[in-house]
């Protein structure tokens, strides 16, 4: 593919100067912002992520802030996950759906206070939908995009690096919980979460002015840990079954089709605008669903859906794929019709480089 032209619409981040100094070699766009995808090479980045610690500029995971007396009511309107047990200090992975039950986004919601949330969004303009619901229902809330940019620390040495900058208490933060920690006199929300299966944290950096000072402090503190700039890794996230909105699912899919039924409690999610639609489809169960898929032979870059065939019948599609160094096979995420979704089923993928033998796997690799 040719290069993408830089412009103001493709927003830089508070860490872009550091990312460029570290030698970023490719970006994608995400929420109209730059998101690094490669530093040294996808494979070199992958091995380093699994053995050391990386600092990721994931500013493109923008926050939709919802604040005011109706904040909790509005959040529950957006998702079929029952939020009644959610307390300040917790983060929830929440499928967000429209009135047909179609996926609009798959963000992480962060509950800051009874009347204040951040919705840490994947790549779709969720802000407009949330503002529309708030306005249409005359809710008493403010909805906007604050100056908050997530910086992820990922990899097996994440705790060691974070302790050096934020103190040993950061080790006590539990998975999908957050604590508030000081940096240069500023309070920052730090959660144990992130878009890899290697462990780590996400720092919600509030105020662009402290972006580079924090970036530099982490790089300085982690020198002997071989800390590097990194980014969500296209191989590791497929091995781990981490879904990508716009790639593995779109508005045409329900949460059940995307395997996110485990994050839905539609029966008790009173107020969710997609509740009636989802109650209908969840009763019957989906007729196609996301599956881990093993591919034989070299896997080309996946920049479009690859048809999955059983003989001359299309029975699904592959939406993300990579060659896995650690598992010695092609790994992929795809949507497969129920007639062919059992583990062990043999299929054929039509890739741009020709047909590939595919087997439906038992589970994701990490
Ligand atoms: N962190 C934050 N914001 C984000 C992402 C993130 N916004 C965009 C995107 N990623 C949203 N999508 C996901 C997808 C998967 C996960 C988080 C956000 C994830 N899933 C774990 C899993 O599936 O194993 C755990 C889910 C759970 O148990 O609750 O972490 O990464 N801030």
UniProtKB/TrEMBL annotation:
One of its GO terms (molecular function) is methyltransferase activity. Pfam families: GCV_T, GCV_T_C. Substrate binds at residue 202. SUPFAM superfamilies: Aminomethyltransferase beta-barrel domain (SSF101790), Folate-binding domain (SSF103025). It is an enzyme of class 2 (transferase). Signal peptide: none annotated. Residues 288-363 form the Aminomethyltransferase C-terminal domain. GO terms for biological process: methylation. Its EC number is 2.1.1.-. Keywords: Methyltransferase, Transferase. Residues 26-267 form the GCVT N-terminal domain. Coiled coil: none annotated. The keyword Cell inner membrane does not apply. This is Dimethylsulfonioproprionate demethylase DmdA.
């Amino acid at each position: 593919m040719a290069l993408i032209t830089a412009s103001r619409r493709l927003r830089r981040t508070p860490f872009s100067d550091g990312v460029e100094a570290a030698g970023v070699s490719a970006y994608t766009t995400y929420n109209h912002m730059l998101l690094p995808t490669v530093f040294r090479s996808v494979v070199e980045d992958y091995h380093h992520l699994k053995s050391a610690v990386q600092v990721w500029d994931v500013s493109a995971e923008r926050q939709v802030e919802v604040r005011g007396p109706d904040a909790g009511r509005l959040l529950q309107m957006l998702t079929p996950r029952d939020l009644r047990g959610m307390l300040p200090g917790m983060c929830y992975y929440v499928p967000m759906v429209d009135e047909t039950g179609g996926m609009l986004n798959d963000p992480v919601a962060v509950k800051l206070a009874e009347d204040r949330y951040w919705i840490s969004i994947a790549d779709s303009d969720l802000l407009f939908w949330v503002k529309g619901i708030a306005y249409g229902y005359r809710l008493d809330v403010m909805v906007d995009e604050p100056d908050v940019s997530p910086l992820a620390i990922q990899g097996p040495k994440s705790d060691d690096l974070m302790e050096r900058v934020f103190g040993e208490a950061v080790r006590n933060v539990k998975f999908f919980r957050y604590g508030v920690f000081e940096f240069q006199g500023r309070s920052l929300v730090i959660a144990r979460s992130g878009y890899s299966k290697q462990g780590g944290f996400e720092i919600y950096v509030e105020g662009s002015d402290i972006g580079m000072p924090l970036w530099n402090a982490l790089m300085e503190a982690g020198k002997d840990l071989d800390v590097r700039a990194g980014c969500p890794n296209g191989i590791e996230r497929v091995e781990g079954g981490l879904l990508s909105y716009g790639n593995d699912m779109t508005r045409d899919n329900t949460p059940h089709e995307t395997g996110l039924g485990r994050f839905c409690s539609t029966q008790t999610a009173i107020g969710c605008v997609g509740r009636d639609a989802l109650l209908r489809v969840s009763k019957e169960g989906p007729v196609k669903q996301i599956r881990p898929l093993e591919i034989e032979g070299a896997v080309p870059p996946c920049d479009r859906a690859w048809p999955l065939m059983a003989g001359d019948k299309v029975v699904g599609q592959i939406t993300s794929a990579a060659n896995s160094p650690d598992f010695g096979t092609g790994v992929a995420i795809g949507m497969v019709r129920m007639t062919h979704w059992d583990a062990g089923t043999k299929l054929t993928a039509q890739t741009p480089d020709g047909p590939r033998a595919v087997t439906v796997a038992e589970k994701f690799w990490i």
